[in-house]
Amino acid sequence: MAAVGALAAGIVSIPASPAHAADAITAADQAYFSYYGLDRARAKGYTGEGVTIAMIDGKVNTSVPELAGANITVKTPCTITSSPAVETHGTGVASILVSSAYGIAPDATLLAYQMNLGADGDKPGQDCLDSGTALRSEGVWLLNQAMNDGAQIINLSASSDDGDGPMKWTVARAMSSGVILVAAAGNSGFDNDGLSLSKWSGVVGVTAISTDGNRQDYSSWGEGVVTASIGGPVLFRNFETGANDTTSATSVASPIVAGVLALAKQRWPEATSNQLLQLLVKTGLNPDHGWNKYTGFGGIDPGAILNTDPSQFPDENPLAQKQGGSSPTPEEVQQYADGVVDPTDIVNDSSYTYRGFDESKLKDGLNVYPTHLGTSPRYHRK
Questions:
Q1: H-helix or E-strand containing 184?
Q2: Residue ranges covered by each domain of the chain
Q3: Average pLDDT of adjacent 10-residue blocks, the chain of 382 residues
Q4: Which CATH number describes the domain made up of 6-312?
């Protein structure tokens, strides 16, 4: 199985000038904070309290000042030797999500899963080998672990070409259980659907815009794009140099969207995940309220999201079928929900029970899931 690509296909970093290692990073340093009026959201109590976000990324260093007091649990399912560049990335993404100084959702609970991002010096240990079909350092395994642990929103600011079969059923699980997946589109400046989690149904693919509302040249795009957000410039604490670096990337835009969805989940606790996705789509800032492959339905509008009651929208996933067709299809999501997917295609899913008719699965050594033959709800529907 292919490994996860590095840092959402690279980040665009420019050393800040002058850069001082001791400088605290504040909201004034982050272009998105004032642009989205996050001080006003905080003043109204919209801080993500009660919401559990997961991030699957590089190592997070929770000792940095910007993460002081944040509710972060670092999850390391296996040993990964991490490079300073990866630590810079992971810590920066975590700070965008929950920093008390400039995080989008500072009172959310953050589960931080360390993955192998494939950067120089990033290396998984022998304990990352799993008895199933994936490594514990891979996106597909970690996405399921985050769902096992109760994550409601999951951010992946990295490209992923994990095996199509297991990933399809992982996404089907998320759609079936109401877990919102948010993914960076990448920073190669071309159609990157094949390498981004955003190609899948249900996933909120995110491209990068600047404060003038225009898509950034580095930002990749594709039919899986759903929304866009500020991609920088922001300051990341650089663990290679000890200074602060100015950074722009879809890796920045994606956690902004995940954080805003956490605010929406707190603001509208009775809304389903499908209704929150409806809210995201219907409040997008494209002038014609249509869709395009560069910004999806348009830039995210936190003000409209926090002021528009999603209960008026249908409890239907607006991303169930993306432009040009996407997988899993609604029928495949139903197959997962009904327990008739081959259990050997399922990875690290603590919720799955096989309920089909294939008796060979009782003796299949690769089937590690509970198996209750013939009990699928689909056999009893009228």
A1: strand 180-184
A2: 6-312, 341-379
A3: 40 42 83 96 98 96 95 94 90 97 98 85 83 81 97 88 80 98 94 86 97 92 96 93 92 97 98 98 92 96 98 97 93 98 95 97 94 95 72
A4: 3.40.50.200
